[in-house]
Structures are given as structure tokens and as C-alpha cells.
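I had to read the description of the data format several times before I understood it. For illustration, here is how one protein appears when written out as sequence plus C-alpha cells:
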Amino acid sequence: MSTITSVPARADESAIANSRTAADRSASGRTWASRLVRVLSVVAALLVWQWLTAGHIRLWVRFDTLPTITQILHTLGTQVRTGTYWLDLGQSLIRILTGFGLAAIVGVGTGVALGRSRWFADIFGPLTELTRPIPAIAIVPVAILLFPTDEAGIVFITFLAAYFPIMVSTRHAVRALPTIWEESVRTLGGSRWDVLIRVVVPGSLPGVFSGLSVGIGVAWICVVSAEMISGKLGVGYRTWQAYTIVDYPGVFVGIITIGVLGFGTSAAIELLGRRVTHWLPRGQETTR
């Protein structure tokens, strides 16, 4: 009897395994199809750009004044063979990583404090709300006066730009945590430290990484702007220098470099966020 009943059970297990395999193959196929579409969309945009600029097309917008893709690629190939290009790239990366790293530490710390401590929120909260609407790039004159070197001023601007998105996102994530989680830890005899480590930190991680993703984008905007205004090295400074000498292919090389650097750092943060919050339930993702 047991032998007879085990046959359908094995058949069910085999069917489940086959269905899972088919689902994995289907998901893998959709992922590769999505990636192919993304690559083709970029290639199509480049081809359209080449057609508009090489054909001297004027459709209200004057594409005939812009360099072609081939001219930009030629200038890019020339610049990557020089040490100046890599020196500017490294300088911008040092500035962004320093300013953003400080903003991540301070932003997450103050965000948790604002979300957990009424006393801290009463003292520090009004100051953050008064200064948060001020664009970080508007602080450049103050940074020039405040810091002894341009380098410190640019890092400060980068820090300020990334700090507020990280702080606000962390604060909202902490305040949105269900109170029943904290009550459960308290009921089991946990201390405030246990609540912080076991509830607040892991529970707010999705919101924290959302703030980090926004913060790195804003930080790139401001570090490039600060380099254009007061820098002596960096991708932003070199892009502005190319504009002043009417080197438009060089301008677009700088723009492309900034875009690639921003994409790479944002992708790194998103990947880190996925690894850190791997315990989160995830639905079917089509944007991977």
C-alpha cells in the first residue's frame, strides 16, 4: 500500500521540480530580453544622434551645432591616452567618495536619532528643516570663505548635497516602523539597544538605501558644479575648460564620463542594497 501511494507523491515532486525549472528558464529569458532591449535603445539613440548631427538637421533645435558621435569618440580615444583624463577622473572620484561617505555616516546617524529621540528632534529638527531647502550649490561662496582650500570646500558641498536625502529617507524609514516590532522585543526583555540593533537598523535598511541612491545622484550634480566654479582638477573642471575654448567634442566627453561614473556608483549602491536586504520578500522584477 505504501509503495502504491509513494508513486503519486514522486510524480508530484517531479512535476513541481519541472515547473520550477521552466519558471527559472522563463525568468532568465525575460532578463536577457530586457537587457537586450536596453542595449538596443542606447544604440538607437546614438544612431539618431549621429544622423541628426552629421546631416546638419535643424528641427527648431540646432543639431548642426553639436559634434557627431564619431567626433566625440575620436576625442574620447585621444583623451583616455593622456594622464590628465585619468587624473581628473580620479580626483572627482576621491571627492565624491569622501563627501558621500561622510554624508552616509552622518545622515544615517542623525536620521535614526531624529526618528527615535523626541529631544533630539526638537533641538536638531528645526535646523535641518530650515537648511534643507537651500541648494547645496548656493553654499559654494560660503564654502570658499569657510575652508582654507578649494578641495575641502568641494568635499563639503558634496557632503551637504548627499546628506539631506539620506537623513530624510532614514528618518521616515525609522518613523514608519510598526510599533508592534518594538513592543515584541520589549516584551521578551530586550533593552533599548536591542530594539535599535534588532528592529530599527534592519527595519529601516530599505529606506536607508533609497536615500543613498538619491544622495549619490545629487552628490554628482553638486560636485561637478562645484568643480566648474572653483575647482582646479576634476571632470567638471575639465568639461568647463573645454567649453571655454570651444572644444565641444571635449565637452561631450566630459558629459559622458560624468554619466558613466554616476551610473556606476548608483549601480554599486543598488547592488549593495540588494545584498544587505536579501531577506526582504521580492516580487517578480522586470527592471533588473
About this structure: The chain has ten helices and two strands.
